[in-house]
Inverse folding.
């Protein structure tokens, strides 16, 4: 059984709408729909839910997560989003690409991103990215991203909850773990000294995902 089939069965059994289950579980209504259809809109492939999504679904269905795993197909592909993005230490001279550096991105409070299109950073060709940004601040040190690190970003308009994203708010940009709920967006730091940044109501319209962080390059470690 897929997670979507499990959720649909629970909803039907309890005469519950997607909207109601969304509020009960914290999973967005749009993503519940994708889970139940089990088809990624871009690739057409089955949905691979994250561990966090499975936990949210389990809580929404008032089940223990082990009970949910027992009912899921044993070969279900699960995205473990808690896995940190890789650090690039050694780059072979063979098979490299040059990625444009678009400026700085805040690891703290959002800052205006400077677009510098004439600077390029060399990175291995296996890193699937479109551009990179220089991290500024210490809010993502829990994810091993420090001030001055180069963060490589794959351009895309959406990310899954818990993934690290480059996010633009009006003309400002910040790097945070991204969470989208029914009535709010939460940008979460990886440093306990920083409170989550929460956007609600019309504020949500000003939040745009630039892309997903896929790797970083640092001289710190």
């Amino acid at each position: 059984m897929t997670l979507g089939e499990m959720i649909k069965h629970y909803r039907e059994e309890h005469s519950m709408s997607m909207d109601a289950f969304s509020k009960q579980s914290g999973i967005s209504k749009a993503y519940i729909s994708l889970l139940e259809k089990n088809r990624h809109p871009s690739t057409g492939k089955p949905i691979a839910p994250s561990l966090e999504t499975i936990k949210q679904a389990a809580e929404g269905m008032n089940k223990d997560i082990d009970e949910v795993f027992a009912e899921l197909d044993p070969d279900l592909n699960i995205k473990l989003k808690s896995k940190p993005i890789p650090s690039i230490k050694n780059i072979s001279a063979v098979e490299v690409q040059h990625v444009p550096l678009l400026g700085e991105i805040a690891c703290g409070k959002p800052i205006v991103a400077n677009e510098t299109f004439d600077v390029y950073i060399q990175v291995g060709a296996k890193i699937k990215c479109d551009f990179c940004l220089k991290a500024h601040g210490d809010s993502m040190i829990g994810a091993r991203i420090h001030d001055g690190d180069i963060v490589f970003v794959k351009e895309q308009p959406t990310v899954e909850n818990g993934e690290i994203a480059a996010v633009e708010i009006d003309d400002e940009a910040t790097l945070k773990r991204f969470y989208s709920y029914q009535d709010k967006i939460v940008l979460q730091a990886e440093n306990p000294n920083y409170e989550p940044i929460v956007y609600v109501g019309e504020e949500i319209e000003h939040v745009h995902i630039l892309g997903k962080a896929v790797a970083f390059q640092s001289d710190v470690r």
